[in-house]
Amino acid sequence: MKLSDLRIGNLIAKVPIVQGGMAVRVSTAPLAAAVANEGGIGLIAGSGLKVEELKEEIRKARELSQGIIGVNIMVAVREFKELVDAAVSEGIDLIVAGAGFSRDLFTVGKETGVEIVPIVSSVKLAKISEKLGASAIVVEGKEAGGHLGTDQPMKTLVEKIVKAVKIPVIAAGGIIDGKDIAEVLKLGASGVQMGSRFVASTECEVDDSFKQTYINASKEDSVLINSPVGLPGRALKNEFFDRLSSNEVDTGKSCDYICLKKCSHSFCIMDSLIKAQEGNMTHGLVFAGERAHLIDKVLPVKEIINNLVSEARKYLGGEEEDE
């Protein structure tokens, strides 16, 4: 079995790897561009950015890369439509959307030619997405970092969904190395989405302490929190998590961001994610996948992708030459 291209509508990625769009300001232009330059698909996280900020990130990515650049925007954010419109106006290649489901997004895709890729966690939503015109779907399991739509393992979902739809299935959640990639491709997935591995890259713009939280993590440090978004979220234990568990975190009822359509006000998700990106572990929430503890080095994106491709080819049993 060969490591094939990833085809999403009219887009063709030489390497079947989508870099996850992680907010807030974790997945920015330098990271997305670096992944695109290596033949993968780079995603900028739009959630948590203002419209003009997202436009600027897309422009920066375009300056740094001629590859495939997309955005990930949470349906749950208040300015979802405005951010989508901004991305389209900047000529974005694809839009990945999770933390909710938007039927209107498919109309945008049909009218503009932008490829639409929803994140789903059930056969039902996968079928609906295909019917509405999705170019591909990201199937995300419980192992993923950030907001989760299921308690089911990724591989179980992938096995069911690849049999239910004809559009490309991109597996997400707990994928760290080339062996993981090979395993899901053998299950019928067309590609993978990886977030956590790219946090520990030199191009990722988070503070070094954020990256070291990954490097120093143990298996037991992966935890679930109740997010104000209304979904469980997978994160890593740190000082903020300890304070949250002890009810020492401000409920955030007086909000400076008003970022969500609906907010439980259990704490301010926006503020905590920004603080983490800046390196404030006392007040910062660090989202990460269930297997982030397996990452032991911060490497350049080029080296990460070269390693992933080499390992995947090994486990697929094919050492095909690059075209």
Automatic annotation (TrEMBL):
Top-level taxon in the UniProt lineage: Bacteria
InterPro entries in alphabetical order: Aldolase_TIM, NMO
KW Oxidoreductase (keyword) present: yes
GO molecular function (one): dioxygenase activity
Keyword Glycosyltransferase: no
Keywords: Dioxygenase, Flavoprotein, FMN, Oxidoreductase
One Pfam family it belongs to: NMO
Stored PANTHER family: 2-NITROPROPANE DIOXYGENASE
Function: Nitronate monooxygenase that uses molecular oxygen to catalyze the oxidative denitrification of alkyl nitronates. Acts on propionate 3-nitronate (P3N), the presumed physiological substrate. Probably functions in the detoxification of P3N, a metabolic poison produced by plants and fungi as a defense mechanism.
Name of the protein described by the UniProt record: Probable nitronate monooxygenase
